[in-house]
Specification:
Number of strands: 0
Number of helices: 4
Distance between the termini: 23 Å
Shape: rod-shaped
Radius of gyration: 19 Å
Helix content: over 70%
Strand content: under 5%
Largest sheet: none
Length: about 130
């Protein structure tokens, strides 16, 4: 359950990051680039933010449906990369993507260790977990 909550949190944060990067692109092209030609940095940063937010949303959807615990870890890594390359408005959303990815990783790890949320194994009729000692 925790991995699904983390994936949903990351997807929502990635969608908000897409909106924030769209605003950065609008401000950089329409407002900043006309008044100050050195505002090309804002435009370039907006495109990087848009790209990483789109990747985060796609990996978030994959993490939601995935049985692998490493999908959440990849989502957390994408969130950290997003924190590094984002502007201040988008950093909070990318931090939330990273937290959601970490939650998805830990939730899937817990489910695999304790046997919950995994399909029943016909060779194990009592339902005891193979992952515990």
């Amino acid at each position: 359950m925790l991995h699904r909550i983390g994936a949903i949190l990351a997807i929502l944060a990635a969608l908000w990051a897409l909106i924030a990067s769209g605003i950065a692109l609008y401000l950089g092209t329409d407002v900043g680039a006309v008044e100050n030609p050195t505002e090309q940095t804002v435009v370039g940063l907006g495109w990087w933010e848009f790209g990483i937010a789109l990747v985060a949303a796609a990996i978030g959807v994959f993490t939601f449906f995935s049985k692998s615990r490493y999908a959440g870890l990849v989502l957390a890594i994408v969130g950290v990369i997003g924190i590094i390359i984002s502007s201040s408005a988008n950093m909070a959303f990318m931090a939330t993507v990273a937290v959601g990815g970490f939650m998805a990783f830990m939730g899937r790890r817990h489910a695999q260790r304790h046997g919950s949320e995994l399909p029943r194994d016909p060779s194990n009729p009592r339902g005891k977990s193979r992952f515990t000692k």
